[in-house]
Amino acid sequence: MAKKITSLNKEWHLAHPMPKNPTVQQRIDWHLEHNKHCRCHPGIPEKLKEEMKKLKIKIPRIPN
Ligand SMILES: [Zn+2]
Fold first, then answer.
1. Rounded to two decimals, what is the model's pTM?
2. Burial of 54 (0-12, 13-18, 19+ CB in 10 A)
3. CA–CA separation, 38 vs 46, rounded Å?
4. Is 41 contained in some domain?
5. What domain range is 33 assigned to?
6. 33 near 22, Cβ under 8 Å?
7. How many structural domains is the chain composed of?
8. How far is ligand 1, taken at its centre, from the CA of residue 57, in Å?
C-alpha cells in the first residue's frame, strides 16, 4: 500500500515562519512557497481564498 505523502518539512518551517500580522499578499506568498516545499497542509486555506476573491487576486493553481 502506497504511503500518503503528508510529511512536514520541519526545516523549511523553521526557516520560513509566517510573518507577524501578515498582509493577504504575504500569506499568499507564504502558502505558495509552502506548497513547493512541504506537504503538511497542501493548498490554500478557504478563508484565504475568500480574501483573495474580495481583493480580486488571482488564485494560483496548486496541485493537491
Ligand atoms: Zn508545512
1. 0.80
2. exposed
3. 18
4. yes
5. 22-59
6. no
7. 1
8. 23
**Is residue 31, in this structure, part of any structural domain at all?**
yes
**Residues whose CB is under 5 A from ligand 1 (ion)?**
38, 40
| Longest CA span, the chain | 43
Cell, residue 34:
509552502
Within the chain, which residues score under 50 in pLDDT? none
Query: How far apart are the CA of 9 and the centre of ligand 1, in A?
Result: 6
| In-domain check, residue 34 | yes
Residue-level pLDDT at 64:
59
- Tell how far the Cα of 2 is from the centroid of ligand 1, in angstroms: 21
Please tell me the distance between residue 54's alpha carbon and the centre of ligand 1 in angstroms. 26
